């Protein structure tokens, strides 16, 4: 009687033309990560956000999504890389981006707008533009990070984006080694996202003071498809981090 | 003494050739070019299919219109000038010394090719290469090579294909040419007709002294011409290097595809001409005259100078798609600016960057989707106006890398346009506000931070800002920026707006 190993080799050999190595386990790869620029979040994510994959950052207004994304972009542009920001709601504040350390010259900003035709009142025109722009930028390649900002898109609209679109984005991001960050009020990419972070506001830095000098946020790891760590240590699923305001900066200067 | 050698390039029916050079779709159709004022226009040039249909020079429009299937085009000086420039430039690659020898509707030039054997081989091979090169540029020419300038010129007009005349064989080569080839005045032509002299060979056989006695000193020149022995002082012209192509349509073109079909051929020619001088196309100016007299103009400027025809055509297609002409197109004029072709040294450890040419196409597509002014890099304005920025074109540039890390900062998410809100005040501080959808209860308000500027212009601003910590009716905390604008209402009352969220 042939051994299991011989049987496996025999089956694989017969199926070789259709499925190469059908019964052999796929070797596990450790995905490259890039630091978010926030130590607490990096610890939570085992180093940072994955390169060549979709990461979702979800949360309501004032949950720290934009600050987190800008901190990540600042790190990428500081490395001399080129990034893009596809802004479905035209919400990015260039001053904040510069203050966060993003090199604006290395940032391609696509500001979606309402269509001039009859679709003016429909949110789909902006969403459609954002998806088309993301598709083009991912296919073009060369961008180290791309933020698809759907933070102002209502969840009921964002959830209608077909899964095939996210699957295509995932493939393109993987091929072009681009970190695709999706900002939204709810998870839209579903299983196509390698990492899903849930953000929430916790408290202001100094509520009793005279200025808003910071904000503390909570970030929770909703899902991590492929942990970068191979040590098997259990990591905490949530963390808090603080973003400081301009006043704090002035005071230190 | 070094032997002289001349090659004459002769493009017959040049008005028709200039038209058909860029309109490859008309190549197989019978085409006649008309000149003169309507309605007394006459045929001045025809192509081969038209000649086979019986069209001949001098026919009136009425006669030509009677021939079925014949396409009639109006003679265009600009098209011919662009075609002539392209022909001379193409010929100039084989010899820098060139003299224009155009007569009538034909375009001809004579090249001084003495001493070019080591570059191009024997004269026969040079002629073949020259003809192939001109055929690629869209011209059908005949070429005659001789050691005598006039022999080459006369023989090129009378031959088809390539003819190389050996040294001291000029008289034999010219002997069968009709005497009309000399372009004599009418009275002298009549005299020769009465004498029964019909060919240059017969003219050359006449005794020189008696001929001069009867018809004057000029006959010595004719006789030398017929013998292929008339000397010539070469007057070289320099082919002007202008990358310009021009095409006029016989009927207004509305469809972009038809326009691009012609533009593709024009770009091909421009790129080929630039590439032969080791240049690339740095920018492309598209000018179109539209039906009704308006002019359409776009400038296409790729990030790097390129010779990629498909890439330039794609950029043109996207530019036309983003800004379509408002009427049918009557003529297209493409002018390219030559630039040094760029060379990029790639490196294994170089950071990941978008490919410049591909990025150009991507940005053009993005602009077609989102709008011309909504794609690019933000640049902060030198002003105290909150949120002021402008959009600049995005270009990939090498940047220095730094390891400096900064503490995370609070970022704003701006509402564009700002949302008008109704605010409840207590002790001049906001305690609650609501927009159209939600109500927010204020937990803490920091401010006001007063800001104003540009009071000397109509673009002034005067507002006070409040950083507000609030909670929605659902209980979730938000931090936002409220603005009390003192300028929006004419009655002097201020307007509250939700400007941004801290996010």
List the helices and strands and how they pair.
The complex is a heterodimer of chains A (253) and B (503).
Chain A: H1 4-14, E1 33-34, H2 39-44, E2 49-50, E3 54-58, H3 65-78, E4 83-87, H4 94-99, E5 107-111, H5 124-140, E6 145-150, H6 155-158, H7 163-176, E7 179-184, E8 193-204, E9 214-224, E10 238-244, H8 246-252
Parallel strand pairs in A: 3-7, 3-8, 4-5, 4-6, 6-7
Antiparallel strand pairs in A: 1-2, 8-9, 9-10
Helix pairs in contact in A: 5-7
Chain B: E1 6-11, H1 14-22, E2 31-35, E3 42-46, H2 48-52, H3 61-65, E4 71-74, H4 77-91, E5 98-100, E6 107-112, H5 117-120, H6 123-136, E7 142-146, H7 149-158, E8 162-164, H8 170-174, H9 186-195, H10 200-204, H11 208-215, H12 218-227, E9 243-253, H13 256-276, E10 279-290, E11 295-300, H14 309-322, E12 329-340, H15 356-370, E13 375-380, E14 389-392, E15 412-420, E16 422-426, E17 429-434, E18 439-453, E19 461-472, E20 477-485, E21 495-502
Parallel strand pairs in B: 2-4, 7-8
Antiparallel strand pairs in B: 1-6, 1-7, 2-3, 5-6, 9-12, 10-11, 10-12, 13-14, 15-21, 16-17, 17-18, 18-19, 19-20, 20-21
